[in-house]
Design brief:
alpha+beta, OB fold (Dihydrolipoamide Acetyltransferase, E2P), Helix Hairpins, 3 domains, 4-stranded antiparallel sheet, elongated, disordered N terminus
Amino acid sequence: MRKNNNKFKIAVSLLALVSVFSFNACSKTGTEKAKKESVEKKESNKKKGPGRSPQAVSIAQIVQTDFTPTIIVAGRVQAIQEARIFPTSSGARVVQLLVDAGDYVRAGQALARLDGRQIGADSELLAAQVRRAQTSLAEAQVSVTSAREVLNRSSSGPRESALSIDAAEIAAAEARSQYERALATNDVGALSREEIERRRHQMESAQARLNSARGDMNAIMQSRRQGLSAAQARLAAAQADLRVAIAQQAQSNSRQNGGLITSPVGGLVTARNVSVGEIAGATGMPMFTITSNGALEVAAETSEADIA
């Protein structure tokens, strides 16, 4: 019995000894771990630098998102560049259509044909305008020549006035001389006061006639200078009218092309506003509308807030 009790005491003692060693080991391990964390924390603070505290961050899952907004607006589809084809001859009747809306055409391609008789009449009308402008120019040239000759004759001495300036100057000088002689004899009493006054009036009248003659001459010269200027202005206008008439005739001749209406550009015919038998240009609308190269665009309006 005593033997068994000794065995029990030995077992308890061994168990207590093991517990002490285990506690010391755990305590040592915990102390070393704490010291290690303290050292790591100090190293981390050194790297961050003084005065800086850790910053909080947010973590989110990466997803794919479309940031392009969709705006719905009302607009219209229109041509980027279009050509409107009008008739080359006003009042001409359409005798043939060569294309229709929806057709693609090339530059220079014939679109329609007009009645050649009306085209010939238009050409003759333009030729008549040129001839009339040439006649007006010739008349204006004659007027300038005549006005210049009249002005030159006036400068060399006009004879239209009843009293020429030369005669008026002679009369004024003679009257002045008579009055001065009368004044010179006034002290000796050779002439009466009435005679002296008469001679003074004669001198004043002669001077007035001289001034009037000179004024008439100036008026005549001014009038004839104005006549020359007006003739020169009519000549310039006639020259301009002739240039316009010639240009219109040349433009019409280049556009007639035997009555063919051609396309200036290549593209899509988007509208045809004329039919066979109709008078081209009677409605004021273009015969054809052609979208250059068929290129279209959308024109729309939207507020600034929708696209901000």
